[in-house]
Structures are given as C-alpha cells and as structure tokens.
Amino acid sequence: MKQRLLILCIAAVALIFAACGGDSGNNGSGMERDSSSSSSSGALCTNTYGTNTVTDCRDNQTYKTVTIGTQMWMAENLNYAVDSSWCYNNSADSCAKYGRLYQWAGAMGLSVTYNSTSATGVISTPQQGVCPAGWHIPTDPEWTTLENTVGGGDVAGTALKSVSGWDEGGNGTDAYGFSAFPAGYRNGYGGFGSVGRYAHFASATTTEVDTLRAYNRYLYYEDAYMGTSSDGKFIAFSVRCLKD
After folding, report:
1. What is the total count of domains within the chain?
2. Residue 120: per-residue pLDDT
C-alpha cells in the first residue's frame, strides 16, 4: 500500500497546543433495526432502515448506504454533531454537503484527552465511536478489504471518488456508489483547507503512530489510489461508518 505523510499542524507550538487540550467544537447547526443508540436526551432509541438508507435515531438524519462486496458502508459522510466536530469553514451548508469533520478522539467516541495521550488498550473491535449503534469506525484492515474489493489500492481512489466536486479533473467514476467527496480538513489552529482536493477518513486502530498522531485513509484529487497517512489527532477529518 502506498503511504503518504501529510504534514499538518506538526510545529512545536502545535504540540504545546495539543498538550494543553486543544479546542472543542460543535458548530453548524422498515425493516432491520439497531437498538441501544443513545439519543441527544440520553434515552435509548432505535435506528430504522429503508431501501439503501439508514436513519440515525439520535438526530433523525437519514444516510444512503451501499453494499460493496461483503461490507455495508454509509455512502455519505457522518453528520452527527458532537464536541470536537465542525462544519467546514463553520458553515452549516458545508455540513449538509460534506458531513462534519471530527478530531480523532471525537471520532473514536473518547475523551478529548486521547488526542494527546495514548489510546492503546482503549480502542476495541469494533469501535462504535461517533457512529450510530450497529455501525463502527472502520479499521485499517477493513479499509484494505474495501480497496481489494474495488480492484486494489492503486485504483481504489478512482473507483471510490464521486463523479463531481474534485479539483482539476480529479473526479472519480464512483463505480460502486461509495461517493467520496473532497471534504478537506480542519487543522489544530482552527483553520480549514483542501476542500476539493482531499478526502480523509478516520480509522480505528489499536496501534497509534505516537501519542499525538494516528493513522487515517485518504483520497487525493491528483491520484488514482487510496493512501494511508499519519496525522495529528487534533486535525479534524471525515467519518465513514461501516455496518457491524
């Protein structure tokens, strides 16, 4: 698998920022069922399913779903508001288009302290994280399964990218209905970048790079492949949920 190191927010001042706890955010605004999701009120609720859709009972948002090989994926980025998550450029319209951007600990459903401390022994398999009940944050091997199903890592980017929205002709074929949009990222200083160029997706892994960095998967407008990157946990990326 090709790997790429995206250098974001690694300056010494960023490390100090991370050690101090960073910032938090929460801007912007039937058939099979998954029980025991916790709603915003704290009560238990039940997700509902339609034809290639799931409705998250926590906030009643409905997401498209797609089955690729043996896996069922959300065909849209998650847009469930929690602390340490943001809309791109703090615009609710961006959340509606791209979903939310989540810091690593927020995506994993952990305390923000894990953005600057080790989560070894804390991540489980599957790790529900910010996903609805019955869904989870994909692990690196699960991303690899997706890659292999769509033809291998060298062509996965083209097969999974949406047919519009990517800069300079970097659109994909969306051959499997995954519809990856270039939602960009939010850095640890509160700035946003790379919309139209990058799609980064959180990955649940029991092995971190170090206390401040974790692995994720990415698609880039100039490349046909899906890459693996190691980036600061305070950088906020997209989340795609995978069915348990």
Report:
1. 1
2. 86
